[in-house]
Amino acid sequence: MEPEQLYLIFGAVAALCAAVVIAMAVCVAFVMVMIGVVTISIIVGFSTGKVLSGLRALLVQLGVLAGAPVGAVAALVLAQTWPDLSHHGVILAMGGATGAFGGLVMALLANRVVQMAADRFPKLRLPRTTLIPSS
After folding, report:
1. 55-65 pLDDT, tens digit each
2. 70 within a domain of the structure (yes/no)
3. Residue 56 located in a structural domain
4. What is the reported pTM?
């Protein structure tokens, strides 16, 4: 084999390995964020003694986490559709902020539905615990 072909094969294998490592890192980061979101929601639920509070915390976190990237992508698509909007950094930040706000609004609407369900089932309670015991 020629050295140019070996360089090309080596470069392709290195790029594939880098893509796999990046994909694995993104998956690990996603799992860690989701574990953190669920853990915080469980802590909120147990510390208040109400399932609804933990569910509300989960919905708000998921709404913001899902809304920000969706808003940023929508803003970038809008920037590509209208070339006059050429400041991609500003568009990305504004899209992320408005997407996070939209996700928060959707989470609060979902929270209202959960509140209505909790009103129908008032016995749905968790044991109340304290995170820092008093001495």
Report:
1. 888 888 888 88
2. yes
3. yes
4. 0.61
Q: How many domains does the chain have?
A: 1
Pairwise CA distance, residues 27 & 34, whole Å: 11
In the numeric block, which tokens belong to residue 1?
Answer: 């084999």
Judge whether 135 lies within some domain.
no
Question: What is the secondary structure of the chain as a DSSP string?
Answer: --HHHHHHHHHHHHHHHHHHHHHHHHHHHHHHHHHHHHHHHHHHHHHHTBHHHHHHHHHHHHHHHHHHHHHHHHHHHHHHHSTT---HHHHHHHHHHHHHHHHHHHHHHHHHHHHHHHHH-TT-B-----SS---
| Per-residue pLDDT, 118 | 73
Mean pLDDT within 60-82: 80
Position 129 in a domain: no
Domain range for 99: 3-120
Please state, in angstroms and rounded to a whole number, the distance separating the CA atoms of residues 12 and 48: 54
Assigned token pair, 18: 């880098």
